[in-house]
Write a structure and sequence with these properties.
- The structure is a homodimer of 364-residue chains.
- Chain A is an alpha+beta fold.
- Chain A has a single domain, classed as Ribosomal Protein S8, Chain: A, domain 1.
- Helices cover 40% and strands 15% of the residues of chain A.
- The first copy, chain A, is built from eleven helices and eleven strands.
- In chain A, helix 1 runs antiparallel to helix 2 and helix 2 packs across helix 4.
- The longest helix of chain A is centred in the N-terminal third of the chain and has 19 residues.
- Chains A and B meet through strand 4, strand 6, strand 7, helix 8 and helix 9 of A and strand 4, strand 6, strand 7, helix 8 and helix 9 of B.
Chain lengths: 364, 364
């Protein structure tokens, strides 16, 4: 593997915004999409950053994503809202939804905003984290295309359906959990493929019901070419409780697609370049001071995180990480040194640059 | 193993109520505790039913649980409330909290009610399920005594911190997920010990950092006798994503103990017979019709559950179960045939009967 080239986050942001503007995506929407991709790239969540820009560009050009759409509040109560994303880019619809969740929590203490007819929105943690400056706890879940098999089942039925929870801290980095309910996020598997690495045997179920298999075949299965799929968190079978990972994923499926009346993952047609099934999200906000003074809460978050990290360590390990902490460390580094991009990602950005006639992203 | 004796659920309910009344627990509180234990026993959740009555009786007799207490709403907003459980039995405080969550969701669409200074409340799914007759989605989480080790850490820091999500269906049984965020709930390990069975090697981390170990030693570790503990869902290390199970458990810890200002699991003193650290819960309710008509939603829940269950099956498996379904099947059986209790549980109930001078539970 060659040393990856690094790019300033602002330069990647510029590139993303220009690419989308060329495709007639409104300015505000292009900006908010670029913001969310930069969030991921700056934090080392390489599976959810600009590496996916090509996918969004193709979806817009093929007409799979609507460019002219309205993001509409369909129905609301004091603490809830249903939003229709109008089949466009997921990022702006998600930002609008989380903003509304925050406004409602400000008014009545807590809220849920659900969003249908949306699309891939990058890292769920980005939206959950929007709650942090308001001293709120943020929650974000979403469904996705079918990828994960039920326990003892052979066909991928639900998405990797992630959950993100963001909690403000005082001096510690905020606690930001952002996890697929499958063993790994699909983006992590795409990274394996880019690196030509093998996947551990306990990530996939093959068509014959045995575990193992190569990641490329898994990605093919996602496109409807057969049985098999990804295992839920907890793996397959009873002993390690894979039914919990699947059960959580199915709960998230219900709380997003079924709650909004969106198509649910098991009923989505196989993926095609010119068709992207609509997905659905749910965003939650909880005002900390609805329960106790925010300053006291944040000091106690610091205390518990410090206590966990001070645990006696297993041999060969000198540090315990809590959710969001690695991302925080990488953030400091990448703000200075730039975002390293895999050669294949750089090639794809170059193709986009040529296709759309915009300047190549400049190497830092 | 001998065939266990069976008891009518009403008889166990009578026994539980009488035992608590003898200890001067107010009638309503004794009733609601017996209700919650019967919920678990009738559904095959033997780890969270009357098998634990002895523990509650001892906690009350030793003064670890307050009998005369008030359950107080400390602070509220339209969609939230903080409740203080007054250090008594967890069941009545949890019921009161979930009732308030339902009332608030009825008024404003959704709600969160958090409860501090409470105690063990049985199966989290019981409280989440209270939302079902109201066509609401119910959520319940709680912290618990330290049992689960962080990834690469050797000391148990957080509880098995379960999450329950209950979703109403139409003709299908409701979707009721109720899962510890550890590989297994502690109650399941207690059952292993009663049965004299061995635990799989991937459930525990031993004091030296290796996996495996006998369940009895794990229970001893809970009482402060050394390092080691239970592994989170996902197991130990990076490959199978144990950091997700721990991350979710720590998120639940923060959303219960830290949000309410209760003592958090990592700071609880070792367990003692005469001292039970207060724990904290969080209850959520979401009105389905705040998003779409409940009848349509419930029909779609039926559809997705049927679709998952219709998946092609792995060899040797002829049925796929979804969360809450096994419990629903057992419920039909046990309502007719009675609740089977392990010999050791029957012995403990007999001891309680003698100690408190109440009639033995009658065998069905």
């Amino acid at each position: 593997m060659v040393t990856p080239k690094r790019f300033a986050d602002l330069e990647l942001h510029r590139f993303c915004t220009e690419a989308l503007s060329k495709l007639k995506v409104p300015d505000g929407e292009a900006q908010s999409t670029a913001d969310a991709l930069a969030y991921a790239d700056l934090r080392g969540i390489d599976s959810h950053g600009i590496a996916h820009l090509g996918r969004y560009v193709r979806a817009i050009r093929s007409g799979a994503y609507a460019v002219e759409r309205e993001i509409v509040v369909v129905h609301e109560t004091p603490s809830t809202a249903l939003i229709d994303g109008g089949h466009g880019l997921g990022f702006p619809a998600a930002v609008r939804s989380m903003e509304l969740a925050i406004t409602k929590a400000e008014a009545v203490g807590s809220s849920w905003v659900a969003t249908r007819n949306s699309h891939h929105f990058g890292a769920a943690g980005y939206y959950a984290s929007m709650a942090l400056p308001h001293d709120m706890i943020g929650i974000c879940i979403t469904n996705a295309g079918p990828a994960v098999v039920p326990i003892f089942g052979l066909r991928a039925q639900i998405g990797t359906n992630p959950i993100a929870i963001a909690v403000p801290a005082d001096k510690e980095p905020p606690y930001v959990l952002d996890m697929a309910t499958s063993v790994k996020a699909i983006g992590k598997i795409e990274i394996l493929i880019r690196d030509g690495a093998e996947a551990p045997s306990d990530w996939f179920l093959q068509a014959d019901g045995s575990t193992g298999g190569d990641p490329q075949r898994f990605i093919s299965a996602l496109h409807g070419e057969g049985l098999g799929g990804q295992l839920p968190l907890g793996g397959c079978g009873e002993q390690t409780s894979g039914y919990k990972g699947f059960g959580l994923g199915l709960g998230i499926e219900i709380l997003s697609s079924i709650l909004t009346g969106n198509v649910a993952s098991p009923f989505m047609p196989p993926r095609r370049a010119d068709y992207a099934p609509a997905i659905a999200h749910l965003f939650g906000a909880i005002r900390v001071d609805a329960f106790r003074p925010a300053a006291e809460f944040k000091a106690d978050v610091d205390r518990i995180l410090a206590q966990i990290k001070a645990s006696p360590k297993a041999a060969g390990h000198d540090r315990i990480w809590v959710a969001g902490e690695k991302e925080h460390v990488i953030l400091q580094e990448r703000r200075d040194l730039g975002v390293p991009l895999h050669t294949e990602v750089v090639q794809e950005l170059n193709t986009i640059a040529v296709d759309l006639d915009i300047p190549l992203p400049e190497i830092k």
